[in-house]
């Protein structure tokens, strides 16, 4: 099972050179006689192509796969034959993006996006033309700007290479998250996202066939890495058995993303019979760069996927509740411990986001895992969950968001984590965020805009990058202020 984040953008550099058929000067051509000859123009073009190709290979971001550069000549008639176009791209579908130096007449017939790195007037003219005729086209002034574009295009390609396993409670409609997008096919039409929909009951059949002699060792390793624990290793192993069954289903069905029903799953009593919950599975999969969401909630899954692919960080998700000024998390909100923030209560309204699915790679996939305690979800003591103090880190600014029910719009808000607390049982941990524009107003926006309730949370302010990504991928971004 590979993460969709592993995809690269296939960039095809095309250096076009106008080699005139004769020597002359005029309103668009000046120079000495020797530099205007076809022989000189061709020789100079080949040398410029060699230097340009080396520069491209040296300066493009690692998210790009640079295909073999092509040198193209045509004369003042600005005509490129079908044979020449075939030389540029024998298999156009393998090209994600053409990088051209100048006009390539007819390249639009290949139907692939076009880009330029140029500070002159040409890209303004060409990008405007290509976009007007329905072709994706982009311009950049330097390699820094171009590499930023490539990273956004990588996110778009990763989204289109995502296949979601939905363990559904399909016999009930709507599912427990009423605001969730019910139309999986629309995700394929809009973004290329495929899906496999199976009953949540099927995973337990997979559990019965999974015999991993290393499960006990893996459970011990998770237990030993924890800074504290109040759950037994055997219960951790049961949750790993569920995790292994989910992974096997994903591999069998070619999936690299996951969501499952939860309330309906609970009502089936299958978790109680097998002494497991999906919580640890969500945390472990997100640590492996696999976007997941609780409760068959497609809207928050979309936000988690976009945040993960863009930021290269594992998002948290949870239920948003309003905490009034003066409320004390331990006494008034039923928390057992306040591990960060004011124990005496907050001096303004806060947004509480609480669930039992924090991953450890929230600070980045290239960063050290965050330390965790182990807790249990149920009063009986089973159901492994990570308890992570998300407030006591240097970076406390977060981006919070959710897609709407039609997956057309993403609402985001900038937040600051000012507190974090744990519960002995049920969903935990909880973070408390000061929201730009106000927590109360943000909750109204979620309801009034048709978004719904679960929220994705990622460290950092990503509003500028999300604004650019929205234009490239094709969704509308709404920023709460």
Describe the structure.
This protein is α/β, with parallel strands linked by helices and about 475 residues long. The chain has 15 helices and 20 strands. About 35% of the residues lie in helices and about 25% in strands. The strands form 4 sheets. Strands 1, 2, 3, 4, 5 and 6 form a 6-stranded parallel sheet that branches. Strands 11-13-18-17-16-19 form a 6-stranded antiparallel barrel. A 4-stranded parallel sheet has the order 8-7-9-10, sandwiched between helices. α4 (about 145-160) packs across α15. The chain starts with 8 loop residues before the first strand and ends with a strand.
Which descriptors would you attach to this protein?
481 residues, alpha/beta, six-stranded parallel beta sheet, six-stranded antiparallel β-barrel, 15 helices, 20 strands, elongated
Detail the poorly predicted runs. Answer: none
Quickly give the structural class: alpha/beta
Overall shape: it is elongated
Helical residue percent band: 25-40%
Cα separation of the termini: 39 Å
Strand content: 15-25%
